[in-house]
Every structure is written in structure tokens, then in C-alpha cells.
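User: Can you model how alpha-L-arabinofuranose sits in this protein?
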Amino acid sequence: LHASMTVDPAFRVAPVHRRTFGSFVEHMGRCVYTGIYEPDHPAADADGFRTDVAELVRELGVTTVRYPGGNFVSGYRWEDGTGPKDRRPVRRELAWHSTETNRFGLDEFAAWTRKLGIEPMMAVNLGTRGLQEAIDLLEYTNHPGGTELSDRRVSNGSPQPHGIRMWCLGNEMDGPWQIGHKTAREYGRLAAETARAMRMSDPHLELVACGSSGPEMPTFGAWEAEVLEQTYDHVDYISLHSYYEEHDGDLASFLASGAEMDAFIESVVATADAVRAKLGAKKRIQLSFDEWNVWYRMRFEAREPSTEWPVAPRVIEDRYHVADAVVFGSLLISLLRHSDRVTAASLAQLVNVIAPIMTEPGGPAWRQTTFHPFALTAANAAGTVLRVEPESPVRETARYGAVPVVDAVATHDAEAGEAAVFVVNRATDEPVTLDADLRGLRAEGVSSCLTLHDDDVYAANTLERPDRVVPRENTDVRLEGGRLRAVLPPVSWTVLKLA
Ligand code: AHR
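Assistant: Here's the modeled complex, given as C-alpha cells:
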């Protein structure tokens, strides 16, 4: 197979937004407890945070973290997670059928993000709660002091306000599984009024209205239109959530998931812009793709519902293989390509729960296969996103029709004199020889070319073999006279660095 493309700094999409490399920590399963927080662990610091996990989070290059849910937030009382730990209530947690000890809460989360240099992003509960609790939470979190709630934060050990700018107005409020789920009309009005009140407190907040829980929802499109009509003046973002998985052994369709993500993003952009035209509004709504990943959701939905109320159970601890990581890399390509409108994104989730980082309680932490495309994209995407239009053979897929075998995006950092090309070969059986015209970049050489590939597309990293799958230097690449030739193995994801 053969593909070609041109990478030229003239084909600008938008700046690379650092918030594209966000993630998500939910009080779900072992994401918090025995994930980022485990006071009894040998590597725990004085605050009980696992330093081995923190190191991997740093290496991953995560820029923002959304918290505390997810479905969890729709039944959560934020006050439960504040104040002296031995006085915090233990409660049943309905979204994931577990017991919440509240040993970790808002102030611990803020301290953890501060230590790691991560921007925190909070969700308010619009399921069982509403406007009053949202503005109380905001006062506790962001007001400097001198009021009841801000002084409570100070006396709880956080003298400085947490200064959280980005807030999600609820979570997946269209989902019948959501505690207190709503119609678009009900949610739109509540979100608009909550946003208005939050803005009275601080006009500089960045607010995210809930979009549909996914493009497969029966109300997808109509939900976005109605919610945005009601909230347009009061919010900055609409959220997108989508998870991808291999269905019935159909690897070719699974590998083409990025095409589905492209279509989803473009539909939300079109809907938001249609509302803009209808309202005669000036601003454009941005997209916060605040839950995305590979998730074997069908397996989760097929399980027996739990009758127990365990603390930090093992929930959706999917083990990712090579093909998962290739799809994952292609989802990052799609997000970057849409940087003109997708200006924030959160990989769901960060540790243990459908996560790039896995841990054992009391034991080690390791990188899943998906860790690598995330870390390499976050580290190498810089400057401006460039549109590349690969000329590629197409393959017919059962789920998404004809999809190009090669997908790619590039970034160009003019100041540093560097560029990066992210490219995926979705063919299941054949390598692709890629010819790229890079003359516009004036690059002198390829500083590195790393490819994630394995002859066994279902190979994974495990506790026993944590580095079974890692990206390797691809030596089948050369650059002459501004023209690059690289061989991309089947089912592979590659990052090329040029300087
Ligand atoms: O990330 C797991 C769950 O997926 C989240 O709690 C929810 O928002 C989504 O359905």
C-alpha cells in the first residue's frame, strides 16, 4: 500500500491547546482510592498521594483533570469530602454501587493538582442538587476569605483559594442511568440559571454545558440544540463524550473509530453554529470533549449487577492491547485536527478505571499500551496544528463504510524550528509506504521516529510484563531534499519528529 501527503506550515488549523491533553479522575472503582491516593502505600507522601503514580502522571503529560465525576457527581454532596477526615460521613454511592469513605475530597484534589502542576476542572451536581449548592461550592473553592464558606476552607487547611476556572454544569444529564437525569428543556433551564449565578460570582469562569452522553443517544443533536438555545449566552463550551470498542471481532471497523469521532465532532460544531445563527449570536461555542477513550462497555453492561457495597472495587479495569493503543492514537489525531473548535478534552479516566496507568494496592504502578500515544502526543504536539490531507487507499468497513487506511495530523513549532507528524496505518494486513512532501517545513532531518506496533495486535502490558508493548524506533524512514519516505507497519501508530 502507498500513501502520500504534504505537510506545510501554511495549512494552519489553530494553536495546539494544552487543555487537549486533559484527563479525568472520578470517585469510581480504584481511580482515587489505591489509584492516586493510598496513604498506606510505601510510596505515599505525607498527604497520602502515591508518588509512583504522580511520576507516571507527570510523564503522561496531563494538563487538566476533571473531577469528581462522571456519574458519581450526580449524587455527590461536596461538603462530605471536606473537614477533618475522621468526621467525614461514609455513604452509599449509587452510581457505581459502592461505599464512599470520603477520605479524599475537594481540598485533597486541589492539593494533588497543585503538586503536579495540573489545572483542576470541577463538575457540579445538577442531578440531586442544583443552583444553591453550585454557588456554595464555588464560594468554598474560589472566594479568598471572610465569608462562612471560604473561611471554612481556610480552617480546613487551604488558606489560598483553589482558583478553579473551568466548571462542568452536571454530567451526562440526558442519560437514563444518570441520577436525576432530565429532559433537554429541564436541564437547559437549570444549566442556564446555574451558569448565570456562577458568573455573578465570577464573570471569568469558563462553563461547560452537558451535550449528549454520546452520538448514539436517541436525542443526540436535538439535545444539543435545545440546551444551547437556553444556555448560549451563559456558557463557553458544550461537552462531548464518546467511547470506542471492538465489536464482534470486527477489527477493521474498530481501527476506523477515528472517522466516527470526526463525524461526531463535526455534527456538534454544525449544531452549535446553527443555534448561533438562529440566535444571531456573535461568539462561537467551543467543544470540550471531556470523556473519550477505548472502553469495552458492552462487557461492562453485560455483567451481573452488584448486590454488595464494596469500598474501591475493581470496576472497568480494561486491559489495553496494541490495537486499542493504535485506535487511541488515532482519536488523538482527530482531536488535534479539530483544534479550531475542540479546545479542551479529558481522557476518561486517569488511573485504574479505563486508564493509561494501572496500580496494585500496596504494589507497583505501570503503563498500559494507551499510555504511550498519549504521552508522545502531549510531549511532541506544539505550536500550531497543521492540516494534512493524506492521499490514501481506502478500506470498506462494516460500521463506518469506506475509510482511508492512513490518517494523520501535524504540528509546527516555528519558534523552536520543530515539527511533529502523527500518523496511523489502519490496514490490518499490509504495511504502508508513506511519502510526505515536507519542503515547506525546511526541516533538516528526522530527529526521531517512534512506532507502536506488534505482530500480535492483542498483546498487552500486565503486572507481570509491564513493558511488553512499547513504542520502538522505526528505522525504515529517510528524508532527502525535503521528501520523506517511511514504512508504517499494519495496525500501527507513529510519531515523527522533525527539526
Ligand atoms: O468514565 C466512566 C463513566 O462513563 C462516567 O462516569 C460517565 O460520565 C460515563 O458514562
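A couple of observations from the model: The domain at 17-380 is CATH 3.20.20.80 (TIM Barrel). Residues 409 and 422 are 5 Å apart (CA to CA).
User: Helpful, thanks.
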